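lol ok so funny story. i was supposed to be doing the assay writeup but got distracted and ended up predicting the structure for this chain instead. priorities right. anyway since i did it might as well share w the group, maybe its usefull for someone
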Amino acid sequence: EVAATARGRSFSKVADLKEKGAFTYELDVNAGQEDLHAIAEGIINDHGQVDLLSIVLVGRTSLLAACYASLMYFDSTNVFAPLDINRAFLPYMRERRTGTIERLKFHRSVEMISVYCATKHAVRALSVGVEREISPIGLRNVCFEPRRFRTNVLTADN
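and the output, tada:
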């Protein structure tokens, strides 16, 4: 079984997954710990377990173009929100002593997206630390960093 999540404004984009049999849930990564725990509990109640928790990071902004609120938003969304999601699902994975957390971050450090690149480096460092914390209890943490390839992930219609 596959359970897919997306933010409210992007929820229609997981409709094709639902048509193929996935269970879909609305989840805003910045919703706060209480809401994330409720969503995690709902998914566990519906499916019994989570074997793979996948977190995909996307975004772009330049340091010169970003206001302070934008900088905090990127840190919140790309660094702290994934940790909150981990904290929501880890109790269930820890109980079973099995499961994998994966992060997909695109490896691209170029001009005009410096703030996003900084959050990616933070995610990589956190991934190493999280792996060391959870591996003694049988859990894994993987950070995928694909190199350059053409996608439409940052296009307006995606």
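The chain has a mean pLDDT of 78. The chain has four helices and five strands.
back to the writeup now i swear
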